[in-house]
Amino acid sequence: MSGISSFSVSKQPPLILVADDDNSVRVFLRKAMEQEGYRVVEVNDGKQCLDAYETIKPDIVLLDAVMPVMDGFTCCKHLHQIDKNNLKSAVETFDTDSTLNKSMISQIWQRTPILMITCLDDEESVNLAFDAGAIDYVTKPIHWPVLRQRLRRLLKEAQIYKQLEAANQALEQIANTDCLTGLSNYRRFDNYLNAQWINLAQKQAPLSLIWCDVDFLKFYNEHYDHFEGSKCLQRIGTLFATQLELKSQDLAVRYGDDEFAVILPYTDANRVVIVATEIQKKIRNLEIAHPKSEISQYVTLSIGVATTVPTWESSPQILMKAGQKALSRAKQEGRNRIIFC
């Protein structure tokens, strides 16, 4: 369950960003909120608020409506634009087209409540506050017991959302991971390949695929047992995860029982053959004894390699079939070899 710690919710006290040009208001709010155990950051105007917002990532923003340099209504709109830009960036860089994942990203970026503080309580000003994106508002002079309860409610709601997001992301990571080797699994492979196909079709850049099959794994299991077979696969998985000179966007997976694969975006035919050769060499260097192999005293891999430039008229399945065809040829022609298709 290591994925859960990766997405754990912070145990620090809530951080509240206060933007108000009235020093006495800021002092009052800081004192009152620090007595509640909150952390507080103060700024004097809307421009400072925007700068602080991106830097400190507060749990709540308390925003005065009337300030110099930039008023609270304008600042609130800009804060939401920052969130939208962050959301867009997160979705574009996320490597799967899963609706669930994009929904979770959306929640993460849209859960910073903005509470407007205003001396304007007419209908037009209230509408402006909500239209700008405020989730609630309080009027001046501030009645602290009311504000305290609203802060507690908003923070509790935000904490619940974050806990749900953390749990969902941990479950998503588990669902995308092969439990034996710790590599990504076929589910993540399919999502990542589809996403990279779309990405590289737009950029007219190459995409390569390496299919690997452990030679005579069945005989290995029969000679030893399935426990030893699992240990063998774990050692191969560790090699793929830690010993290969893969680029950050490359993805190694355990696709099936005895099958491993590597997706290599922005990789042409020359480069992918180098990577495949490296895989075969390092598997050989592991020297995992295989007395029942028909071709070597050690565990070996048959490897199929395929490269293409994705287009909108074709599909990832074409590349997969080409790689699998190359792998079949490698096995038919004697195993322990690399075939490029």
Secondary-structure map with pairings?
Layout: H1 2-6, E1 15-19, H2 23-35, E2 39-43, H3 46-56, E3 60-64, H4 72-93, H5 99-109, E4 114-118, H6 123-132, E5 136-139, H7 144-175, H8 186-203, E6 207-214, H9 217-223, H10 226-243, E7 251-254, E8 259-265, H11 269-286, E9 301-308, H12 316-332, E10 338-340
Parallel strand pairs: 1-2, 1-3, 3-4, 4-5, 9-10
Antiparallel strand pairs: 6-8, 6-9, 7-8
Task: Write a structural description.
This protein is of the alpha/beta class. The chain folds into two domains: 2-175, Response regulator (Rossmann fold, 3-Layer(aba) Sandwich); 186-340, Reverse transcriptase/Diguanylate cyclase domain (Alpha-Beta Plaits, 2-Layer Sandwich). The protein is 53% helix and 16% strand. The chain is built from twelve helices and ten strands. It has helices at residues 2-6, 23-35, 46-56, 72-93, 99-109, 123-132, 144-175, 186-203, 217-223, 226-243, 269-286, 316-332, and strands spanning 15-19, 39-43, 60-64, 114-118, 136-139, 207-214, 251-254, 259-265, 301-308, 338-340. The protein has a five-stranded parallel beta sheet with strand order 2-1-3-4-5, sandwiched between helices. The chain has a five-stranded mixed beta sheet with strand order 7-8-6-9-10, with helices on both faces. Helix 5 (99-109) runs antiparallel to helix 7 (144-175), helix 9 (217-223) crosses helix 10 and helix 10 crosses helix 11. The protein starts with a helix and ends with a strand. Mean pLDDT is 87; it is low at 1-9 and 95-109.
